[in-house]
Amino acid sequence: MESHEKEALLVRWLQEATRVLAFCGAGVSAESGVPTFRGAGGLWEGHRIEDVATPEAFERDPVTVWRFYAERLEKLETVHPNPAHLALAEMEGRCREFLLVTQNVDDLHERAGSRKLIKLHGSIKEVRCTACGRIGPLPAGFSFEAVKGGEMPRCGCGGLLRPNVVWFGEYLDPEHFQRLEGFFRSCPLPDHPTPQHPNTPTPQHPNTPTPHPILLIIGTSGLVSGGYGVTWLAKRYGAKVVEINPEASALSLDVDLALRMPAGEVMRRVWPLVKAVV
Ligand code: APR
User: Is residue 121 flagged as an active site residue?
Assistant: First the structure.
């Protein structure tokens, strides 16, 4: 299929869909200027994961870990949401059931306006106390320079604060999985609408098939835990799986439609056509 035909198909699926789950990764923020993790020039170059993104690294050397995150936080202030973030935020308002699940720890989805959002890997704009466990925004007076100079942020209880992100070797919040699974579980199977009570009035268009739910996989390599089985789950509940990524990923074998282009570029063309109708 030619790429313009693929885009036309995506437009049609999104126009018809009443349920869309977007599963996103670092590639969504790439066109905003946030480096991906595993691509050329990726963030981890020059930083071994074990030195900056594990609980052991933080225990051993919190200053190095905080410096790394302070640099990322500082960089985040200079970037902006791109058309992919903006389209996903608008989709939430126009689609009857919508959920955005991101592995990104930046805040570009929130800044674009997304609210129905699960941040699987946490947020670098939040901190967690290593002593009392309290989670909150960066403390008042948080200074990139002070942190880079070795001054560690502290909780009101005196405990050392850490970035509220999920590091390698740490568990995800099980509630996040429940919401993700619940999204698909509550989908009526396509063409087999949920049985109605006998007194329920006959729908106006009884022959209108239930549209397939759509899983949009955008900008993730799927290398972390095989994308948490999201494609398997989606397929089990009859979803159409669409991938938007210039490169094939570990999830590509499961997709029904692959658009091999940058996400912002695709959304800049596709979304205005979708929203003209929905
Ligand atoms: N549009 C869409 N996809 C893109 C773009 C773009 N403009 N640019 C790059 N990509 C794709 C790459 O081809 C790659 O498949 O984004 C993907 C980025 O993959 P990773 O760097 O592995 O990022 P991600 O899948 O989000 O990693 C998951 O791993 O290191 C951990 O916690 C970290 O959240 C991160 C997780």
Answer: yes
Do 254 and 134 share a structural domain?
A: no
Its pTM stands at 0.91
State if residue 121 touches ligand 1 by the CB under 6 angstroms criterion: yes
Atom 34 in ligand 1: residue holding the nearest Cα: 103
Q: Hey, what's the torsion of the CAs at 30, 36, 39, 43, to 10 degrees?
A: 130
Alpha carbons 42 and 40: distance in angstroms, whole number: 5
**CB of residue 163 inside a 6 A radius of ligand 1:** no
pLDDT digits (tens, 9 = 90+) for 72-114: 999 999 999 999 999 999 999 999 899 999 999 999 999 999 9
Cβ(221) to ligand 1 under 6 A? yes
Domain of residue 223 covers 1-33+80-121+172-278
Domain count along the chain: 2
